[in-house]
Amino acid sequence: MKLFKRENYLKKIRGFYHEDDIIKVITGVRRCGKSSLMATIAEELRESGISQDNIIYIDLDKRGFRNIVTADALEQCIDERGHAEGLKYLFIDEIQNVKDFETVINGYRTDGGWSIFITGSNSYLLSGELVTKLTGRYLEFEMFPLSFSEYENMKVFYGKSVNANAQAELTNYILESGFPRTVLLDDPADKRRYVQGVINEIFEKDIRRRVKIRKKDTFELVRHYVINNFGATTSINNICDSLKKNGLGIGKATVSRYIKALVDAKILYECDRFDMKSKKLLSGEKKYYLADLGFYYAENTDNRINYGPTLENILYVYARSHDCSVSVGRIGKLECDFIIRNKDMNYSYVQVAYTIALSRETEDREYRPLEMIKDNYPKYVMTTDYLLQKRSGIIHANIIDFMREEKEI
Of 5, 44, 249, 290, which is most buried by a Cβ count within 10 Å? Predict the structure, then answer.
């Protein structure tokens, strides 16, 4: 099947295709498209004239490679395939399946003549010897599930229908998830079932093997609590108190460990809160956003959408996929949804809401935090409104058009 090109990620990696001293590490939640991205890179190399003999592609999840679980077996597998003259391009998918893979990869990097690309589904990939031995010798390229524009473009690419009503299509995107495989499925129940399968796979392969979870039921309760409260300000204490009210006493250390496991598996992302007056991070309370909204909607039978946190989540992932760092800003008693620093180290401030057209009170609620910020960085109110307001030099943008056009924040 012809591959849909994820240009947002390809353009970040292309400048390093032929570099043999830098390992290209592609990370991201399971099933977000890392394998397809690597296959696309290999395809682009072939199209540019690189011989197939110089491209070694090893998918450690596939039949024929699944028995490669040791460093020696991996090295033997590579050597059996790497006889071509000139620069060789080594692709290894799901490399965390191999114990002590770091030593092997470092050896080929040190030898030279190998441009190395590896993928992994969780933060453990970059928590061991790869970091300590290879600081400055690898680059991480973090992938996310499909953005809204990628979702629409991929549907067109594979001949699937796109709803002409932008807001209806946004609703489809929210409920169906941004996992690429779901685009090829037509039945909403099948899409939901697929995402549930991804959740189970992550638990078995990325969490259970790495974290000692004695009581799966307890872990599931913590997972459901955090996922069901995505976009809400919370803390470990709040979670413990809430669970205690429901008759379940779980220690802070256990809750913290379970949340770390979800973050390491890239299901959750932590968003710190920042006090703009003191210029300090606020300890304790954070917001958690989902790598994909499918983690919420696939496991909840109620399809009513709370657009406030949902749109926040979409914009958070959008900003992260464009190499931005994101925090929540507090200004006195008010809160700015996001302080975003882009790859050029420029800041912007963003408020997100479904609409500000309902009342002047609604409009004021979104504009006031931004009006209190006195520096000259850009300020945005992002909504689904098509009638745009002009007030205090603040940019009122339609979030759907903003994402469709892949604009930089």
Answer: 290
> Residue 268, Cα to own-chain centre: how many angstroms?
9
Burial of 181 (0-12, 13-18, 19+ CB in 10 A): middle
Q: Tell me, what's the pLDDT at 150?
A: 98
Q: pLDDT tens digits, residue range 313-335?
A: 999 999 999 999 999 998 888 99
> What does the buried/exposed string (b/e) look like for 97-134 if buried means 16 or more CB atoms within 10 Å of the residue's CB?
bbeebbebbbebbeeeebbbbbbbbbbebeeeebeeeb
* Ordered DSSP codes for 354-395: S-S-S-HHHHHHHHHHHHT--S-S-EEEEES-SS---BTTBE
Q: Crossing angle of helices 216-228/252-264, nearest 10°?
A: 70
Alpha-carbon distance 303 to 64, whole Å? 41
Secondary structure class of 406 (helix, strand, coil): coil
Q: Tell if the pTM clears 0.90, that is, is over it.
A: yes
CB count within 10 Å of CB 269 equals: 21
Two structure tokens written together for 386: 């098509």
- The tokens for 63 are 């039949």
What is the rounded distance in angstroms from the CA atom of residue 149 to the CA atom of residue 169? 11
Cα 304 to Cα 113, 166, 292, 293, 377: the distances in Å are 54, 18, 17, 13, 36
Q: Is 235 exposed, middle or buried (0-12, 13-18, 19+ CB in 10 A)?
A: middle
User: Residues 251-302: pLDDT tens digits?
Assistant: 999 999 999 999 999 999 999 998 887 777 777 789 999 999 999 998 887 7
* Residue given tokens 């401030």 in the structure block: 349
pLDDT for the residue numbered 135: 66
Is residue 380 a contact partner of residue 355, using CB atoms and an 8 Å limit?
Answer: no
DSSP codes joined into one string, 197-225: HHHHHHIIIIITTTS--S-HHHHHHHHHH
Q: Which residues contact 166 (CB under 8 A, 6 or more apart)?
A: 400, 401
- Hey, how many other C-beta atoms are within 10 angstroms of the C-beta on 281? 12
